[in-house]
Amino acid sequence: MSLERLIEQCKKNDVKAQSELYKLYASKLFSVSLKYSRNTAEAEDNLQDAFVTIFKKIEQYKSKGSLEGWMKRITINTALQRYRTVGVFDIVNEQQIADDSIEIDEDSISIDFLLQIIQELPDRYRMVFNLYALDGYSHKEIAEMLSITTGTSKSNLARARQILKEKLKTYKASLNSQTL
């Protein structure tokens, strides 16, 4: 079945088509959900909630842009919705922000380890880090999505980078001590 036909059937609440659409995109959207979640169980919950929203709102998809991109935005927004109402974002003074870059040695650090330390970040830092560094949103867009100031977005990104840098430094030190 073509994607266009699949979408049309989903708009008619065809359970078979919905199941097929889920099978086509669940793994890609799960990885998106995982980036914004504390753990696998939370990512699974967010993914399920995202698909409920996708099927409810599929009528709104007008075939402009990719379906995957549209579903990815819904998945991100579903994960972020958990944090908007809980007040996890700090308001800070923009002058306190230092731009801290992170250097990663791809040979000694696995993607799984990087994902793990990103998931360990406090919610407010993880959300901003993922939106900015992994999904390419601007601080202005992040501020609008999370109902925070651009200064808070920048500050949370800087703090996330600082925490990740410290964890990578500790990890590298433990690797070096094992090889000695």
TrEMBL record:
InterPro entries: RNA_pol_sigma-70-like (IPR039425), RNA_pol_sigma-70_dom (IPR014284), RNA_pol_sigma70_r2 (IPR007627), RNA_pol_sigma70_r4_t2 (IPR013249), RNA_pol_sigma_r2 (IPR013325), RNA_pol_sigma_r3/r4-like (IPR013324), WH-like_DNA-bd_sf (IPR036388). SUPFAM superfamilies: Sigma2 domain of RNA polymerase sigma factors, Sigma3 and sigma4 domains of RNA polymerase sigma factors. Coiled coil: none annotated. Keywords: Sigma factor, Transcription, Transcription regulation. Residues 114-162 form the RNA polymerase sigma factor 70 region 4 type domain. Residues 21-85 form the RNA polymerase sigma-70 region domain. Pfam families: Sigma70_r2, Sigma70_r4_2. Belongs to the sigma-70 factor family. ECF subfamily. This is RNA polymerase sigma factor.
